[in-house]
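Structural prep section.
Before we set up the soaks we want a predicted structure of the protein with guanosine-5'-diphosphate in place, mainly to decide which crystallisation condition to try first. Input record follows.
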Amino acid sequence: MKIGIVGLPGSGKTTIFNALTGGHAETSSYSGAKKEVNLAIVNVPDKRLDALSDMYKPKKTIHAQVQYVDVGGGISGKDADGRAKDASMDEILRLLRPVDALVHVIRNFERPGDAADPQRDLEAFESELVLTDLIALERRIEKVEKEIIKGKKGDPNEFELLKKAYEVLNSGHALRSLNKIAMSPLLKGYALLSAKPCIVVLNSADELSVGETHLVAPEGVVTVEIKGRLEMELKELQPDEAEAFRKDLGLSIPATDRLIQESYALLGLISFFTVGEDEVRAWDIAAGTHAQKAAGVIHSDIEKGFIRAEVVSYEDLMSHGSYVAAQRAGKVRLEGKDYVIKDGDVVNFRFNV
Ligand SMILES: Nc1nc2c(ncn2[C@@H]2O[C@H](COP(=O)(O)OP(=O)(O)O)[C@@H](O)[C@H]2O)c(=O)[nH]1
Ligand SMILES: [Mg+2]
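Run finished without errors. Recording the tokens verbatim:
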């Protein structure tokens, strides 16, 4: 699962990318966006996994992961003030097409002669997404219409759907605002940007207090406020040093952790755990996945030879102190192939090879 970091040039995309990944990608000067693409895989922080790891003391602890890509540039190839810049629109679109969700970074810090106006920037970028999709749809609608008129294979259902989507965009709304359209398999193939689930990151100046800035995000879009530059700098320190700084600054859990967790949820992912002395591991699956299918995430042989899933919830395991104790208390269940795995299930698959 891949998440694209997007936003106007100079909004702090690369800074947020570094804060998330502990990377050292080069940030841009005020004058122009850097062109290169940054890609990183990030562990999803999970207190439950840490606790399970404390319980089992395994050789390895493996987190669920998400991928972030910082494509740079702005979608239209212009910055907030309408100056042309270097990253080409086609290139950015090509890079964004395969991502599963967007993290939209908004500048909430001043730059020389340019006060922060997050609401304006948010709306400007939303309009860019909508406009980009409108142009793509317009082309496609023309094509399908021609095919239908010629009596060729143009699909009338697709045509109707495209027109509906077009109306939504034309009224200035992102396609994600209409779940039925955004989720439609027919439209999925177009990889429309405004249909992708989105989180807004308010990238705030160090001196602001969190919550001070009023920002109205589009419907259904979660906002996470992050002091991007500060978090990036804290990532440079040893964990205990960073912790001490956080205390001094009155920051609780890193906002970047929250952003990673929110992006994970945004992708519709939940975690189940496997435990043992060798390895304690979090596995990501789509919410609603059945036990047998979930087994396939670990190995196709386990899916094929699936017999039963031995399941105990994380809470039950922890409150009884050990697997054996939870078992004695009747908290370990045997579930069949159609059992829907829940977030936090600790699972031991029984299978034939
Ligand atoms: N004060 C402040 N400056 C920031 C913050 N985030 C980024 N910047 C600065 O804004 C400029 C552009 O940042 P960059 O991450 O390269 O933006 P991008 O073009 O969106 O990738 C750099 O000079 C950063 O140091 C922040 O949270 N606070
Ligand atoms: Mg950048």
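Observations: The chain has a mean pLDDT of 89.
Flagged for discussion at group meeting.
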